[in-house]
Write the structure tokens for this entry.
Amino acid sequence: MIYNAEYECMDPEARRKLQLASLKNLAETLYANVPFYRQKMDGMGICSRDVHSLEDIEKLPFTTKDDLRINYPRGLLACPKDRIVEVHMSSGTTGKPVVDEYTQKDINIWREAMARTLSAAGCTRDDIVQNCYGYGLFTGGPGAHYGALTIGAEVLPMSSGNTPRQLMVMQDFGSTMLTCTPSYALYMAEEAVEAGIDLRKLPVCKGCFGAEPWSENMRKEIESRYGMKAYDIYGLTEIIGPGVAFECEAQQGLHINEDLFYPEIIDPETGKTLGDGEKGELVLTTLTKEGTPLLRYRTRDITYLIREPCTCGRTMVRMHRIFGRTDDMLIIRGVNVFPSQIEQALIEIEGTEPQYLIVVNRGENRLDEVELQVEVKKEFFTDETKGLEALRAKIQSVMASKLQISLKVKLVEPKTIERSMGKSKRVIDNRKI
Ligand code: DLL
């Protein structure tokens, strides 16, 4: 279902005009109101009057996560403080958290973006949305909540955790839609089996999953365990939270809410703009935000843009599902490795579950050593050590040929890798300690 055809199916040329007007306005506001941007633009000898076309965005400065941290907590505010009505922050596992401050207009933009997102997955006012993204400073819970309310659906604001209660509510209230991280969806499904609950017999038939990388394999697993259709949704605190991009029923990439967020793809090394279809770092500009608007924010997420028209009728550009991040990229003995590549390689190996953990150590010889722990399907975990040994050797040789690294594979029993209620942790890099 298309929530707002006027904008989602807009003539691309008309949209470009709108984007240009918003961009000029943004450059002007940031120059006038945010000293950080004024200094940057002065340093580059550029001002808003130099923006004549959308391509001129390349003349404007980038914003990085470090810029946000340096300006913590309120250095990037672009409007008077009393206009702020809500604040969110990232979890900030390293250093200071990044902050997003919303005016009422920003909240309305978020509601719109998330209403489009949930509608594309089939959400209507008849739905009961069990929202198990975390509530609080994290944007997941509130974002999905606002979207569901805007559509007029009923929301169960569960937040994450307390899985027995989640399953009880799902059965008793007949939730029809699930919103949470893909890893938590799988965790809940496993707990349901344990509790003797057949999720496929429940009304839950669709879900929007995101906030962490996941694969087609995980999608299939969620879809078959719940008997549902699973959609990928993408966003980040800095830009608005969830609601930046979402899958439609065609599931051939995620539509970016382009009238609100302007995407570019750059080469992360050189900063040069790349063309459609070329894989690189996603850079986003918030076109209409008031509280903490950002110019050319370097997301560190790797994807490419798909400009061809989509069968769903939306004209908004699509991005490929996120391949990984420039910064979770592991360098193993000089070879660049993304955890998502390892996951992708595992999909093709019969007998493994999409649950894995990468442990990186620096060996006595000072060389990197990687241990890949992989969960094996129950039926494989028999006493027949020969079968297991063959599987282990197979994984090892697939990884060596696909990733050009040799790693030690450790097969573990089903459900031994720690499950997370929020974002799952796929890498333990002991080299930094
Ligand atoms: O995770 C916002 C969100 C909430 C998105 C709920 C979707 C659903 P942050 O905590 O700031 O915000 O983390 C943002 O998570 O830069 C990506 O690296 C990653 N990420 C988010 N969605 C996806 C996705 C939220 N669908 C960071 N696929 C982003 C892969 C994702 N990675």
